[in-house]
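User: Can you model how phosphoenolpyruvate sits in this protein?
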Amino acid sequence: MKGIGASPGIAIGKVLVKKDPEIKIEKKSIENVDAEIKRLEEARKVSKEQINKLYEHTLKNIGEKEAKIFEAHSMILDDPEFFGQVEQKIKSEEVNAEFALNEVTNNFVQIFESMDNEYMKERAADIKDVSSRVIKQLLGIETTDLSRLEEEVIIIAEDLTPSDTAQMDKEKVLGFVTEIGGKTAHSAIMARTLEIPAVVGVEGITTSVKNGDILIFDGEEGNVIVNPEEKVIEEYKNKKEEYEKFRERLAELKGAKSETKDGFEVELVANIGTPKDVDGVIRNDGEGVGLYRTEFLYMDRDDLPTEDEQFEAYKEVAERLEGKPVVIRTLDIGGDKDLPYLELPEEMNPFLGYRAIRLCLDRTDIFKTQLRALLRASAYGNIKIMFPMISSIEELRQAKAILEEVKEELRSENVKFNEEIEVGMMIEIPAAAIMSDVFAKEVDFFSIGTNDLLQYTTAVDRGNRQISYLYNQFHPALLRLVKQVIDNGHKAGIWVGMCGEVAGDPKLIPILIGMGLDEFSMSPISILKARWIINNLSREEMKEMAEKVINLPTAEEVKKFIEENIKIEF
Ligand SMILES: C=C(OP(=O)(O)O)C(=O)O
Ligand SMILES: [Mg+2]
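Assistant: Here's the modeled complex, given as C-alpha cells:
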C-alpha cells in the first residue's frame, strides 16, 4: 500500500490497530439496586485511576496544557449532579448501570450540543469521552491505551488526535500509519517532533490489517507492506540498518558549518510548536528557531493564555537557545486551527476567512497581550517577531503600529525589552509574494510559508486527500514565486528564509541554495540531513539548475530534472 511519507525512518513490527470497539448497551431490569450502584462506583473508581495515570504521563512527557484535558475528565467523574442522576435512574427504574449512565449522558450531551456555543459543544465531547470510558469498564471492554503498551508495536488508526500522540509511549511505538492526513497534518508534524517514523493518508489500512500482523513501512517513501515474505523482511532490515548508520553519520555533522563546497553559508533552523520541542532542536544541532508556531499555546484549553503564561513560554525558548535566533510567529488561528472558546463564526471558506493577522487586527486585546509577552521575553534572548498571513501593506503597517504602541506602553512602565528587535513577515499569500518588492522596504526579513503559498497559488486545499495529487511542491508556479521573493528581499537588503515544508525537502534544497535562500527552517529531525546535502553542493552549479528548473512547464518535469541532474551520494 502507498501513503504519504510523514516522518522518516523504517519500521518493522507487529500491528496494533487502534479501533474503538462497538459498544452495545442493552436495557436490563435488575433486582439488587445497591449492588448495581456499587458496580457503578467500582467502574468509576477504575476509570478515575486510568485518567489520573494519563494525566501524570502527559504532564511528565508532554506538558501542563496538554494534561489539562484529563483534569477536566477527572472533574466530570467527580461530578455529583451528573452521577447523582445516574444513581437516581438505577433506583427509580431498577435498570442496569450502563443503561442508566448512557441515558443520562445522552440527555446532558443533547443539552450541551444544542447550545450555540462551541465551548459547550466541546464539553459535550468530554462528557461522552468520560461516559464511554466508564461504560467500557462496566461491560469489561478493553481499549487500546497507547501510554501503556505491553510490547513494541506499529499503531494503525483512522486518524490520531493530538491527545493520542501525546499519550504515546515512545519506547514502545515503532511508528504509526493512518488513513487520514497529509504531510502538514497535525499528526504528521507531531510524528516528526517525536522522531517516530510515520506514513499518513493510507486509505483502507485499518480494514486491511489486524492485530498481530507483521508490517513494514518506510516513513520517507510512504511504502507500506503487510505480512511481507521473509525475503522482504530481510531486505528492509538491511535498509533499516543502513538508515540507522546513515543517522549516525549525520550525527557527526553536529557542530559543522551549514555551507556549500564553495563556501556559501546558510542558517539551518527549526520549526517548533512548544517549548518542549527545543529538546529536539538541541539534539539535532539546530542553529536557532525559524518558526515558533504559537497557536499551540492557545489550543486545547478553555480560555486565552495570560500575558505571563506566554511570557514564560517565549522566555524559556529564548533562554534555552542561548542567543541563537528565535523567530516567534504571532497567533495564526483560524482555517484548520480552531479555538472553540473564541466562538468564531462558521465560514464557507475558513482558509480564506477571519483568521491569523486578520483576527489579531480586529481583536487587538488578544494581539496586544501577545506582543507584550513577546517584547518582555525579548530581553532574555534573540527573539524576532513575525506576522502571519499578511496580504496587504495596510495590514503590515497596522500590525507594526500596534507593536509600536505596545513598545511605548512598556517604556512608560519601565519594562525592559530589546529595542532593536527585528520584525518580519510570512510570505504565504500570493499577493504578498507578488508585492514582495514593496513589502521588503518595510520589514527586517521574510519567511516564505510554502505550505500555504502553494495552497493559495494553486487553489488546492492542503488537507484534502481527494485532490492531494494537485498539491505538488514541484509546481513551477510556486518555484517562480519563491525566486521572486528571494530576489526582491535581497534587492532591498533583507534576509529571506523559508519555514514551509519545502525548506526541508531533500530534492528542493539544492534549488533553494541556487536561488540564494538565506535561512532554512524545518522539523528538527530534518536538519542534519539538510546540512549533509548542502555540504555536498556547489552554489554556482545550483544557480544554473535553479534557472533551468523555473523554466520547465510542469511539476513532473521539475521533479524529473532534479532527480536526473542533481545527485547526492549519502
Ligand atoms: C509554515 C507555514 O505555516 P503553517 O503550516 O503553520 O500554516 C506555511 O504556511 O508554510
Ligand atoms: Mg501558513
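A couple of observations from the model: The longest strand covers residues 10-17. Residues 428, 449, 451-452 surround magnesium ion (ligand 2) (CB under 6 Å).
User: Helpful, thanks.
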